[in-house]
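Protocol step 4 of 5: obtain the predicted structure for the target chain.
Materials: sequence only (see below). No template structures provided, no constraints applied. The aim of this step is simply to have a reference model before the mutagenesis design in step 5. Sequence pasted as it appears in the construct record:
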Amino acid sequence: MSNFAEKLKAFLHDPIDKCFDIQGHENRAKLYANLLGVSGVLGVKGPDMIASCMERSLLPERVIQVFNEIRHPLSEGYLTVSNINPNDAFNSIRETYEQIGKEIGNWEDKKKFFFLWRNLQDEIFEKAKSENWVKYLPVLPADTRVPDHSIWEHLKIASSVLAFWDGKTLIQNNSLFLFSIGPVQSFIAQARKTQDFYMGSFILSFLTFKAMEVIIDKFGPTNIIYPDLYKQPLVDWFIKKNFKDFELLEFKEEHLQLPIGFKEEHLQLPTIPNRFVAILPLSNKDEINSTIVEQMKKKIGDTIKEAKETIFSELKPTSDILDENKIKKIQEKINSQLSEFPEIYWVALPWKIGNKDISFSDFKNILDNNILEKYEKLWNFADKEGEFF
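Step 4 output (structure tokens):
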């Protein structure tokens, strides 16, 4: 269903060091991608346009701003950036891509995509750990004019979007997808010990991830936009299960003595919330239900069935505690409690209706006319004066 060759192009269409030299960034993107055995990255226009619209405020065209600060997206906080030699970054990053290319150049596109998403930042860290600029690597901005979102986030969103720009028209086929599993309140209400709270959280966390696996496998981890899956233990576990010869990296500063790589004990942490939001490269709700949601329900059901069978296999008659009748009653009670568990809710908001993108007229029955008119005026202004509208 998903073309990982195109997702690779989208993930590599901008270089990580774009902010150091905007004018030359396309040549560097092409160079770095070629070192990885990927071509055609400069043709990625549709996903780039949509990702840019999602991330940036209204900007007039042809405004130029040198890279001199990084801003916090939700506050007035910022970092002043100075005393950076861009050539240091260019050399280290080029050498990193060259080194990675020798290792993964012949891999299949899907495995290559997962490797770059998971390990590229750490590979660059390791190569450039003694250089002054590398401390900014996780937050290097995608746009120096609005330096409040990172290049990593921009590439993540671009790689999750299915779109094509033919020079005149933007053609896209996407939906915003929300999935939720429960119940949460009854887990809390029935908890009597700290362990009960933990197990309730773990069960919901793990089952939610089993639903996520469908999207991760079909479209990649970048299509989950909440929560962020980068270095999530369960995602690392998924990668280790599905890809051979895939070392999970983690940058280590010697004086901090940070753990390196994947550790199985981390799987016991309920780090996934009971809901997630994704971008799906589909807009037909029936297709989403049949190809995505039904598979999610099956994965969750199979996981519960497997856990239940494991519990039943451990229930064996003993002379003083359990006889066969008691075991049968326990099994019946477990089956009864699981008959309506879990509660699953989902909704998909297509970005298009039929063959046309959503327009303001489609919200007339939802929004007040005065509110709709204000948004429409803003849209018309942005369409006329702004970039990527």
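Step 4 remarks: The chain is about 45% helix and 10% strand. The chain has a mean pLDDT of 89.
Proceed to step 5.
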